[in-house]
């Protein structure tokens, strides 16, 4: 049975990845502006003074403008740095700081490295996803970094996954280690998902 779940996840990820690659440059710019507005409103609504976020790839809803503006407003933003042992270190976002390619080709900050425990101090987690279903289950990209992080936090703050509108699905394949999220943010809406465990 686990093989069937893994196969279903692989097939869905491949389909979602292909759809993302077909988005036009104009759509991507519009999506980034919409996402920034949604994330700004979420931070204000939650009163978060410290958040974790991620540096988006060119095919993801864009987070770079949100991060730059949040830092300018005095919000502490932690960005993940992947490690080969499956854990994530963190770095405080610096709009003037360097960005390099991480372990899996995703953009990551260059700077002072904080331990995996640093994320325990944030008020809000903003995480990438391939898709999220209406019960709050998140389908990641298959490496388990965010599931491990969320699952290991003693006092986990609200967790919001970032996807495009068409990636909010009725159901996603799930395994025992998969972690639910509190809500989902797209370029046009923010949906709390009350049915999730967080």
Care to describe what's here?
Helix content is 30%, strand content 22%. It contains four helices and twelve strands; from the N terminus they run H-H-E-H-E-E-E-E-E-E-E-H-E-E-E-E. It has helices at residues 2-21, 25-46, 64-72, 145-152; strands spanning 50-52, 76-82, 88-92, 99-101, 107-109, 124-128, 131-133, 138-139, 159-162, 168-169, 183-185, 190-192. It has a single domain, classed as Rossmann fold. The strands form three sheets. Strands 3-2-1-6-9-11-12 form a seven-stranded mixed β-sheet. A three-stranded mixed β-sheet has the order 8-7-10. A two-stranded antiparallel ribbon has the order 4-5. The radius of gyration is 16 Å and the shape is globular. The protein has 198 residues and is an alpha/beta fold. This is 5-formyltetrahydrofolate cyclo-ligase. Belongs to the 5-formyltetrahydrofolate cyclo-ligase family. It comes from Microbacterium flavum.
Comma- or semicolon-separated keywords:
198 residues, alpha/beta, Rossmann fold, three-stranded mixed sheet, 5-formyltetrahydrofolate cyclo-ligase, ATP-binding, 5-formyltetrahydrofolate cyclo-ligase activity
Strand order of the largest sheet: 3-2-1-6-9-11-12
Assign an overall shape: globular
Q: What order do the helices and strands follow?
A: HHEHEEEEEEEHEEEE
Percent in helix: 25-40%
Strand content: 15-25%
CATH architecture: 3-Layer(aba) Sandwich
What do the pLDDT scores average to? Answer: 91
Q: What is the gyration radius calculated from CA atoms?
A: 16 Å
Question: What is the assigned CATH homologous superfamily?
Answer: NagB/RpiA/CoA transferase-like
Which parts are unreliable, with pLDDT below 50 for 5 consecutive residues or more? none
Biggest sheet statistics: 7 strands, mixed
Number of strands: 12
Integer count of domains: 1
> What count of helical segments does DSSP give?
4
Sheet/helix structural class: alpha/beta
End-to-end separation in angstroms reads: 27 Å
What is the CATH C-level name? Alpha Beta
The CATH topology, please?
Rossmann fold
């Amino acid at each position: 049975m686990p093989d069937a779940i893994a196969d279903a996840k692989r097939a869905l990820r491949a389909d979602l990845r292909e759809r993302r690659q077909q988005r036009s440059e104009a759509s991507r710019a519009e999506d980034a502006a919409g996402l920034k507005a949604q994330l700004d409103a979420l931070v204000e609504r939650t009163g978060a003074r410290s958040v974790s976020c991620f540096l988006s790839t060119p095919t993801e809803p864009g987070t770079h403008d949100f991060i730059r503006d949040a830092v300018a407003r005095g919000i502490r933003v932690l960005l993940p740095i992947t490690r080969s042992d499956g854990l994530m270190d963190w770095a405080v976002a610096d709009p003037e700081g360097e960005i390099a390619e991480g372990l899996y080709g995703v953009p990551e900050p260059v700077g002072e490295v904080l331990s995996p425990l640093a994320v325990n101090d944030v008020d809000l987690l903003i995480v990438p996803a391939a898709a999220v279903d209406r019960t709050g289950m998140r389908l990641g990209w298959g490496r388990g970094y965010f599931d491990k992080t969320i699952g290991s936090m003693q006092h986990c703050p609200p967790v919001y996954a970032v996807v495009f509108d068409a990636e909010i699905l009725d159901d996603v394949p799930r395994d025992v280690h998969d972690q639910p999220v509190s809500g989902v943010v797209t370029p046009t809406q923010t949906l709390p998902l009350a049915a999730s465990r967080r």
